[in-house]
Structures are given as structure tokens and as C-alpha cells.
């Protein structure tokens, strides 16, 4: 049997025809076979022969339509009908009756043989087609399924069975929802549309769960199956081709995970490079992994051989009195995404307490300023020795109190030195401010009365060749003559850069490169650079780690104006040579007031910086909404006196106020530095 099947398949594949008689005799068949019906027609009257052929045609049709069983039944029925309908001439004899039954038997025999022969031919053709299509159907690498008009499975191949996780026989006679319970109703409706409208469904994604609990991602294409195979034939079912995309989806997920890991690695590399160039100790906080990463420089600074492995080990290196404050500061930085600067105490491995100045910024998931904050990174500077020197100075000053004469002499010397230093400080600040067409400008510098060192705070304003006004306020980290000298140099270089190309972001980028490459490591400067166009009230600005400027609109009747905080800043200058700084543009409304200041105006020991900044914004809103005209002098005097009302000045302060006039109003004359 197997050999016969292999022979049939081989003949079918090679396209050969079955020949039962070989040699020249097969040509004689074509001549002699038609002689049999010719003999019957010749010996039988035409009136009797024609009904027989009609019945024979009916029997053949029944066999083609219904198969062998209905064909044999049609042969018996046709024989009986032939006997009943054919009338022999009268008078009839017994020989005529015998002849009639003989011809009926011959007719029944011939029609039965015809039925068997035709059924064998049709079966052989079906087997030939199946021999070709079945191997292709089963060997297809994608899942193939056929549905009837009730959308029940008629046939599935092995690939489809592997996709659904059920044997092929478990599909037959069932609907798609019975085999795959979690199939969407939308897909079932789309298959029904294929059946009713003849549309083609392409690339429909489907997620299924196999009986083993494994999720698989599939892509389904469906098409109508027609009776004639042509576009006009009636639709008898639906064919579906299913591709398993599970591995592709898994590979894409692995690639995305690899890209995220590479991005983290690049971020760590940039952090290490910035620490190496600036010779500062760096750190990183990864929110997703909930861990802190310390650079080698920071480990060395803290006397550790290896970085802390857990958050508890990190907390062990922070002074207990500082943990709550640093935790709150970190939460604000994550919530707002704003850069931060904080002075804190940390404990070395040998138990020594060190004073640390920490500058940091938020790390976002992308380049979008509104992207999610995924971590923090920054630099740490040890200022213990500087603080110790300052504490020793205060201690020495306290010892002099015991002798009034010595104290008076020392105070006189300190005041004299202070006056000299103040003169030195003010000599590096502008002696006058430019006139603002249709507006006013005022600046002031406040120094700490009891300190003999010099701060690095500055302000500046000068006209540009195109009629615009360049403004800047900044602070060199530190309080000594070196910081004051750097301040004077930076202010002068800032002027040169602005006159060459006044774009604020470009000016800060070049200042940053100058600090990192031309000054000692650890020289840090915060600054805000602006370019104001008095003709249209346009302000272009950039911020490098400096306290946020404030913009107050013109006062509204019976309401305090809402002060806008320009709360966007790039990192402090001097941390990384490769950092670039961006410029931003806004419009100063008519009657509006812009306030620039240094951190001494809002920074107080044991006071939250955010609370101080909110207090300053509220104070500015109240000042500009006062009844009657409010000049820039009123603004400067109001904010300085209001912010210093609760305590003494702890750090030098620079304040600069710009006011845009209202068209048709007369503004007070521009102010000058105090």
C-alpha cells in the first residue's frame, strides 16, 4: 500500500498520466471503444435508445455531485424508470418481455460500471491534489487555518497547533473563541467582515496565552475562500495565516534594555570625565536602582578604599544633624528638577568631620526639559580648611573683646582694612549704569559689615552697539582677595564676550571653558547673563547655577500681580569644560520689573532656600503693587530692607532692577549704583 502511494505521489509530482494499456494497443482503444454504443444504437430503435442515454447522463451527474453511493442509487432508479417509460410495440410476446429485461439488466450493469469508474476517476484526482497540497500545508513555517461559514475550524496545520498550544484535532468544529479564550471580540468581528464583505485582513496583532500560561504575540492575516477561486465566486469560508512574533518582540525588548544600559554607562562616563577634568569629587544618585554611586575622588576624600555598597553606608558618612536637611533638599531637587547648592557636614572613615560644599543637578530621562527625573549628579568640594580659617578669625576676634583697648584698636584696623577692601571691591563694579529708553535701571551692592574678607559678587550693565542693553549678575564661590580678583576678571571678560557675540548662552559657554582651562581647579562661578531690547521689551537670558531671577508685571487694580520665577538653570560654571549653556527669551510687559540678585539676599543659615525665594517673590509683588508710582529705587530699597528685616546680613549681596515703562507714562530718571 505504501509503495502504491509513493508511486501515485511520484507520478503526480512528475506530471505523468496513468495509462492502463501500454504499447500500440492503446490507440486501438480510441477506435474500438465507441463501437459498443454504435452497436447498441444500430440494433435498437432510436425511440428506445435516446431515453437510455438521457438516464445515463442523469446517473453520471448524480455521481459527480453526490459520489459513488448516490450514483449507484441513481443507476437503479434510472433502470426502473427506463422499464416504466419505454413502451414496446403491440402485440407483445414473451420473447419481447425477456428482451426488455435483458436490456434493462445490461443498462443497469453499464450504468453501475460507469458510476464506479467515474467515482474512481474523481477520487484519483482528489488524491492527486491532496498529494501535492497536504505536504505544503503541513510543512508551512507559518500557521494556516481554514474556517467554514460559521467561523468554525475546518482544518489547521501543525504550525498553527503549536501557536495555540493545542493538538490539531482539538480545533476541528470549534470556534476561535473556544480554542483561544482570550481572543479579542474585535478580531472575531473582523473575521466575520472577511466572510460577509469579502475584505482582506492584514497584519492584525494578537496576544494570546497558551494553556501552559505562556504569552505569545501573533500577527494574523485573513482572506475569503471562494468556491470558484475567482473574485466573483461565492465565499465558502475564511483562510487565516498566523505568524508568531514572540521571539521578535523578545529581541526588541532585549535591544531596548541594552540601549538603556548603554545610556547609563555613557552617563557614568561623562560624570567621571567631568570629575577628572575639574579635579573635583563626583557623585550620582540612581533613582531606579535606589543607590548612590561615588567616584574614586570622593572615596579618597572620605578616606574609603571602595564606594559605599548600600544606602545605610552612605548615611553613615553624613553627619546625623544633616540627614533630615539633605533628604528634604534631595526630594525638592527630584520634584522640581532645579540645580542645587548646599553646605553640609560629612564624616570620614577615620571619624573626622569635614565641611562640604555640594553642587548638583537633576538627571532627566531625555533631552526634553519636562522629561521625568531619573536621578541626580553633581560635585563635592571640601571647604573645611576655609571654614576653619574663618572660625579661627571669629575666635581671635572674640578673644580681643577681653581688652577694650586692644579691641578698639583691632576694630579700627579691621574697619580701615574693610574700607580698603570695599573700595577695592567697588572699584571693580561699574561706576554708572546706562540709560534705558522708556525705562529705568538701578543696582546696589551690600557688604557684610563685620567681615574683613572680600566677596566675589558682581553686577554689570552696559549698552551694546545695536542699542540693546547687556546685564549680568554673578558670584565667585569663596570670600577672599583671590575670589574678588577672579570676579573682576570674569566681569571684564564677560563684557568682551558680550560685545563680540551677545548671545547669553554663548557668553556663559565661553566663560565656562575659560574657567575650566585657564583657572585653578575648583574655581566655580554662578551667573545670570541677559540682553534687553528696550524697543520691544524683549529679554534673552541664560542661567548658570545662579538664584532664579524674578519678573513682576505691571500692578493690576485692587490685586497683587503674580511674580514669575524664571526657574530654569544650567550647571554652575567651572564644573565641566564640555558643558554648553542655552539661552531663553521672554517679553518684559509694559510696567513690568525684572529683579536679578545674588544668593546673599535669600540664603540664611538654618532657613530653607525655597522658603526664602518665595518670600522674596511675595515681597516684590507687594512693592510693585503699592499705590502711586513705584521707581526702581523703591524696588531696590524695598527688597533689601524687607529681606534683611528678620536678621543680619550673612553674605555680600548684589541687586539689580530693570523697569520697563508704560507707553505714554513718564518714568523716573534711571538710577545709578548705590
UniProtKB/TrEMBL annotation:
Residues 129-198 form the PAS domain. Pfam families: PAS_3 (PF08447), PAS_4 (PF08448), SpoIIE (PF07228). It comes from Cryptosporangium minutisporangium. Keywords: Hydrolase, Membrane, Transmembrane, Transmembrane helix. CDD domains: PAS (cd00130). It comes from the Bacteria. Gene3D superfamilies: 2.10.70.100, PAS domain, PPM-type phosphatase domain. InterPro entries: Bact_Sigma-Reg (IPR052016), PAC (IPR001610), PAS (IPR000014), PAS-assoc_C (IPR000700), PAS-like_dom_sf (IPR035965), PAS_4 (IPR013656), PAS_fold_3 (IPR013655), PPM-type-like_dom_sf (IPR036457). This is PAS domain S-box protein. The chain crosses the membrane at residues 21-43, 72-89, 101-118. The keyword Membrane applies. Residues 340-395 form the PAC domain.
Amino acid at each position: 500500500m505504501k509503495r502504491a502511494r509513493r508511486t501515485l505521489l511520484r507520478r503526480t509530482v512528475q506530471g505523468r498520466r496513468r495509462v492502463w494499456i501500454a504499447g500500440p494497443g492503446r490507440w486501438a482503444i480510441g477506435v474500438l471503444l465507441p463501437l459498443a454504443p454504435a452497436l447498441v444504437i444500430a440494433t435498437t430503435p432510436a425511440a428506445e435508445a435516446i431515453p437510455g442515454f438521457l438516464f445515463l447522463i442523469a446517473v453520471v451527474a448524480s455521481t459527480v455531485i453526490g459520489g459513488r453511493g448516490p450514483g449507484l442509487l441513481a443507476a437503479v432508479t434510472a433502470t426502473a424508470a427506463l422499464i416504466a417509460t419505454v413502451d414496446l410495440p403491440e402485440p407483445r410476446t414473451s420473447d419481447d418481455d425477456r428482451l426488455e429485461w435483458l436490456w434493462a439488466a445490461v443498462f443497469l450493469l453499464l450504468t453501475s460500471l460507469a458510476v464506479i469508474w467515474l467515482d474512481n476517476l474523481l477520487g484519483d484526482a482528489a488524491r492527486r491534489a491532496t498529494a501535492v497540497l497536504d505536504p505544503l500545508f503541513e510543512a508551512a513555517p507559518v500557521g494556516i487555518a481554514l474556517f467554514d461559514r460559521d467561523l468554525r475550524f475546518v482544518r489547521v496545520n501543525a504550525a498553527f497547533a503549536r501557536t495555540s498550544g493545542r493538538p490539531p484535532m482539538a480545533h476541528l468544529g470549534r470556534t476561535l473563541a473556544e480554542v483561544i479564550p482570550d481572543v479579542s471580540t474585535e478580531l472575531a468581528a473582523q473575521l466575520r467582515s472577511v466572510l460577509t464583505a469579502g475584505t482582506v485582513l492584514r497584519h492584525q496583532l494578537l496576544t494570546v496565552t497558551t494553556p501552559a500560561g505562556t504569552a505569545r504575540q501573533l500577527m494574523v492575516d485573513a482572506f475569503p475562500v471562494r468556491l470558484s477561486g475567482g473574485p466573483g465566486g461565492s465565499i465558502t469560508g475564511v483562510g487565516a495565516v498566523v505568524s508568531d512574533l514572540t521571539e521578535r518582540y523578545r529581541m526588541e525588548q532585549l535591544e531596548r534594555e541594552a540601549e538603556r544600559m548603554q545610556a547609563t554607562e555613557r552617563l557614568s562616563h561623562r560624570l567621571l570625565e567631568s570629575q577628572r577634568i575639574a579635579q573635583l569629587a563626583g557623585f550620582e544618585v540612581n533613582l531606579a536602582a535606589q543607590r548612590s554611586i561615588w567616584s574614586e575622588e570622593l572615596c579618597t576624600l572620605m578616606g574609603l578604599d571602595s564606594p559605599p555598597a548600600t544606602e545605610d553606608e552612605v548615611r553613615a558618612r553624613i553627619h546625623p544633624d544633616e540627614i533630615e536637611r539633605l533628604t528634604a533638599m534631595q526630594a525638592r531637587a527630584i520634584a522640581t528638577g532645579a540645580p542645587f547648592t548646599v553646605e553640609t557636614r560629612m564624616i570620614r572613615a577615620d571619624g573626622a568631620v569635614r565641611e562640604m560644599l555640594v553642587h548638583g543637578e537633576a538627571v532627566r530621562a531625555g533631552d526634553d526639559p519636562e522629561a521625568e527625573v531619573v536621578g541626580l549628579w553633581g560635585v563635592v568640594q571640601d571647604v573645611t580648611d576655609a571654614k576653619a580659617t574663618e572660625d579661627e578669625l571669629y575666635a581671635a576676634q572674640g578673644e580681643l573683646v577681653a581688652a577694650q583697648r586692644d579691641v578698639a584698636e583691632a576694630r579700627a584696623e579691621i574697619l580701615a582694612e574693610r574700607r580698603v577692601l570695599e573700595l577695592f571691591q567697588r572699584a571693580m563694579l561699574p561706576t554708572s549704569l546706562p540709560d534705558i529708553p522708556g525705562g529705568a535701571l538701578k543696582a546696589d551692592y551690600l557688604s557684610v559689615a563685620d567681615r574683613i574678607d572680600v566677596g566675589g559678587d558682581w553686577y554689570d550693565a552696559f549698552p551694546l552697539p545695536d542699542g540693546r542693553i547687556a546685564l549680568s549678575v554673578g558670584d565667585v564661590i569663596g570670600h577672599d582677595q583671590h575670589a574678588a580678583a577672579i570676579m573682576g576678571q570674569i566681569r571684564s571678560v564677560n563684557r568682551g564676550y558680550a560685545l563680540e557675540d551677545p548671545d547669553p548662552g554663548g557668553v556663559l559657554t565661553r566663560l565656562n571653558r575659560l574657567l575650566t582651562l585657564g583657572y585653578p581647579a575648583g574655581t566655580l562661578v554662578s551667573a545670570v547673563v541677559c540682553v534687553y531690547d528696550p524697543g520691544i521689551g524683549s529679554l534673552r537670558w541664560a542661567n548658570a547655577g545662579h538664584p532664579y531671577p524674578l519678573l513682576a508685571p505691571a500692578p493690576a487694580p485692587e490685586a497683587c500681580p503674580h511674580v514669575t520665577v524664571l526657574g530654569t538653570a544650567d550647571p554652575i560654571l567651572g564644573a565641566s569644560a564640555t558643558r554648553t549653556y542655552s539661552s531663553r527669551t521672554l517679553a518684559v510687559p509694559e510696567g513690568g520689573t525684572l529683579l536679578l540678585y545674588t544668593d546673599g539676599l535669600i540664603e540664611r543659615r538654618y532657613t530653607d532656600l525655597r522658603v526664602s525665594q518665595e518670600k522674596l517673590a511675595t515681597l516684590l509683588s507687594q512693592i510693585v503693587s503699592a499705590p502711586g508710582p513705584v521707581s526702581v529705587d523703591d524696588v531696590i530699597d524695598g527688597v533689601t530692607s524687607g529681606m534683611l528685616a528678620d536678621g543680619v546680613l550673612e553674605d555680600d549681596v548684589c541687586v539689580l532692577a530693570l523697569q520697563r515703562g508704560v507707553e505714554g507714562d513718564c518714568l523716573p530718571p534711571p538710577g545709578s549704583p548705590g
